TrEMBL record:
Keywords: FAD, Flavoprotein, Oxidoreductase. It comes from Roseiflexus castenholzii (strain DSM 13941 / HLO8). The keyword DNA repair does not apply. One of its GO terms (molecular function) is oxidoreductase activity. This is Molybdopterin dehydrogenase FAD-binding.
Length: 288
């Protein structure tokens, strides 16, 4: 399939990109790795009159450790994140998550900013963003602001971004002693998208779970936290029974989708199974 005709711009700076977004309004779309947008253009599901290719904007590149945080440029590819020593040592769950996305072509082109902006219901990163409490840093015509992962994912393919905003970077916590996080996914055998994906973060104070965050993707139209399951684990020792009870409480707030790959009922059952797996591994890592 051939996309509908479009005008192409390749700005060198974020400010230039914002200017183009302002100038062309809803007719314009940012292009990063293209691994969600190009298929949509080719299928003519999207027909923007203007494409603003931000893949050469150097401000959007790079991964740096800054105190207890990693700052990852929106244009960092999955491959760059998966192979970054700073990410692998500071926040291994993120490296593991992006290392499981798609295939090598997708990982070489797809970007963290593109995935978070696209908010595909089956994307992996939103679950990990929710579990880690990532911050999404954006710039727009009205300046810079930060959006918490909890506020980012609004509905299917819909985020809290305004149409003139560009994600510039993502702030990710570096996990310390007593903290552990893990991602478990039931992957589509061909595309590797999440049929169900669960990310879990656990913090231990001594032998007691003092904090827990769980993000679920793939199961419904938008990635969501799991407050009931999180609350069920906090205050426990995080042993197998406590993890099983918490996993059993998972699933609230998910508007389960059914398709040719998995029924809504199957996804509902798998959310509990994968929550249990992710929590078990997160607790194991938190124990060190
Ligand atoms: C064969 C195949 C398999 C895949 N498998 C998986 C998988 O297993 N798991 C998974 O999670 N994903 C998967 N994907 C999707 C892939 O992760 C996409 O790359 C990602 O969803 C989009 O990132 P991108 O950089 O390619 O963005 P693009 O496709 O260029 O853009 C996507 C959207 O985000 C917007 N955008 C891009 N960058 C920014 C920015 N900095 N600020 C604001 N808006 C921006 C664009 O305007 C567009 O609307 C797969 C894709 C393919 C083609």
């Amino acid at each position: 399939m051939i996309p509908a005709p479009f005008q192409y711009y390749a700005p060198k700076t974020v400010n230039e990109a914002i200017g183009l977004l302002q100038q062309h309004g809803d007719d314009a779309k940012l292009l990063a790795g293209g691994h969600s947008l190009l298929p949509a253009l080719k299928l003519r599901l999207a027909q923007p009159a203007v494409l603003i290719d931000i893949s050469r904007v150097s401000e959007l590149k790079g991964i740096t450790a800054n105190g207890d945080r990693l700052v990852i440029g929106a244009g960092a590819t999955y491959h760059e994140i998966a192979t970054s020593e700073a990410v692998r040592s500071g926040c291994p769950v993120l490296a593991e998550c992006v290392g499981q996305i798609g295939d090598i072509q997708v990982r070489n082109r797809g970007t963290i900013g593109g995935s978070l902006a696209h908010a595909d219901p089956a994307a992996d990163l939103p679950a990990v963003a929710l579990a880690l409490g990532m911050t999404i840093n954006v710039m727009g015509a009205n300046g810079a602001r930060s959006i918490t992962a909890d506020d980012m994912f609004v509905a299917m393919l819909t985020t809290a971004l305004s149409s003139d905003e560009v994600i510039t970077s993502v702030t990710v916590p570096i996990l310390g002693k007593g903290e552990g996080a893990a991602y478990a996914k039931l992957r589509h055998p061909a595309s590797r998208y999440a049929i169900v994906g669960v990310a879990a973060y656990v913090k231990l104070d001594g032998d007691t779970v003092s904090a827990c965050r769980i993000g679920v993707t793939g199961a419904g139209s938008v990635a969501v936290r799991q407050p009931a399951a999180e609350a069920a684990l906090v205050g426990t020792s995080g042993d197998d029974d406590a993890v099983a009870a918490a996993a059993n409480a998972a699933g609230d707030g998910v508007d389960y989708l059914g398709d040719i790959h998995a029924s809504a009922e199957y996804r509902q059952a798998m959310v509990k199974v994968y929550t249990r797996r992710a929590l078990t591994e997160a607790v194991r890592r938190a124990r060190g």
